[in-house]
């Protein structure tokens, strides 16, 4: 029975890892996905079980969440064994680097960006049809900071004045980052070395407790 290329999850959806597209740069289709916009599980809150009261008392004054799990169902088509191995190895090597990788999903003009790492091994189901080789696999990714805010800056520098008592991490959109930012009216700036962008800036952490930020960037997503 002939093997046909599957349709992508939806026309107009683009997946990139560290700025390189799954399909045009690696030859990898995404046929389905889950977890991207699901609410992560709540961390176990403090619970008090008074013996003389009904039920329990649950402290939800400051809810916190566990990691987000993203699963991408992927498909690769190759002209032969060598082409297949080259495509698979090149694609998986993009994830096997120190630090978190930047997953960018474009559904609208407002991207969804996640800092992720591969959680499990990748098992590839391989099939032959005539002179072509096909492979399907599931890419399981973990986002350790599942609550975040996104800004965009068009210009060669960006500045932010931030007040927060919970450390946040800032990913500037050009492979640079500033970690553990906290305090009162902390000023952080970044220079894009002459590149006007646009650059999408990700803030990860307890963003709901940040005071209003003074910045020359524009807010894209307040929380997602």
Structure characterization notes:
The structure is a single chain. The protein has 224 residues and is mainly β. Helix content is 8%, strand content 48%. Strands 1, 2, 3, 6, 7, 8, 9 and 10 form an eight-stranded antiparallel beta sheet that branches. Strands 11, 12, 13, 14, 15 and 16 form a six-stranded antiparallel beta sheet that branches. Strands 4-5 form a two-stranded antiparallel sheet. It is flat and about 70 Å long. The termini are far apart.
How many runs of DSSP E, i.e. beta strands? 16
Shape: flat
Distance between the termini: 43 Å
Beta-strand proportion: over 45%
Low-confidence stretches: none
Secondary-structure element pattern, one letter each = EEHEEEEHEEEEEEEEEE
Output the structural class: mainly beta
Main sheet specs: 8 strands, antiparallel
Helical residue percent? under 10%
Give the number of helices: 2
Kindly list the characteristics that best describe this protein.
six-stranded antiparallel β-sheet; single chain; eight-stranded antiparallel β-sheet; mainly beta; 224 residues; 48% strand; flat; 2 helices; 8% helix
Give the SSE map.
Elements: E1 14-17, E2 20-21, H1 22-26, E3 28-34, E4 46-48, E5 57-59, E6 68-78, H2 81-93, E7 101-106, E8 112-118, E9 125-129, E10 132-143, E11 148-153, E12 157-171, E13 177-191, E14 199-204, E15 214-215, E16 218-221
Antiparallel strand pairs: 1-2, 1-7, 3-6, 4-5, 6-10, 7-8, 8-10, 9-10, 11-14, 11-16, 12-13, 12-14, 12-15
